[in-house]
Amino acid sequence: MSADSVFQTLHGLAVLMWLGGMLATCTILRPAGLAVPSRVQRLQRLVDIFPRLFGGVWAAVLILPISGVALLRLRFTGFETAPRDVQIMMGLYVVMVALFLRMQGLQLPALRKAVAAQAWTDGAIAMKKLRRLAVGGLLLGLATVVLGMARQF
């Protein structure tokens, strides 16, 4: 297996992990949470679930730039000679990391704090903000995949 194939595989798996986490947040956790009649139980469960879900996203956050830079070095002579679509994908990665850091660093702690204080309205507000950030990250991620796949063909 060539170095290019190894890094391409790692890159693809990292994308799947990240988008899978955002997709699960948007399409699985929300309906599952709404199925729990008690808002208290729903928020308590989400506080337990998010750190597990975000573990895979953190792995992707670390793997993507490593594999991406490796692919860039293997296929082009550097950042400045990379095609425009590759440069756009790098920019979208930075924006997606910023959204994820906001989720992890601001909204998840706000959700935990609200649940610990039994401030259920505040918890619901934090959860709504988490969901919005996840939707934004998912849409940006899908746009990035479209750019990457369009380059393949």
Automatic annotation (TrEMBL):
<dbReference type="InterPro" id="IPR008457">
    <property type="entry name" value="Cu-R_CopD_dom"/>
</dbReference>
<feature type="transmembrane region" description="Helical">
    <location>
        <begin position="133"/>
        <end position="150"/>
    </location>
</feature>
<keyword id="KW-0472">Membrane</keyword>
<protein>
    <submittedName>
        <fullName>DUF2269 family protein</fullName>
    </submittedName>
</protein>
<feature type="transmembrane region" description="Helical">
    <location>
        <begin position="53"/>
        <end position="74"/>
    </location>
</feature>
<feature type="domain" description="Copper resistance protein D">
    <location>
        <begin position="49"/>
        <end position="147"/>
    </location>
</feature>
<feature type="transmembrane region" description="Helical">
    <location>
        <begin position="86"/>
        <end position="103"/>
    </location>
</feature>
<dbReference type="Pfam" id="PF05425">
    <property type="entry name" value="CopD"/>
</dbReference>
<keyword id="KW-0812">Transmembrane</keyword>
<dbReference type="GO" id="GO:0016020">
    <property type="term" value="C:membrane"/>
</dbReference>
<keyword id="KW-1133">Transmembrane helix</keyword>
<feature type="transmembrane region" description="Helical">
    <location>
        <begin position="12"/>
        <end position="32"/>
    </location>
</feature>
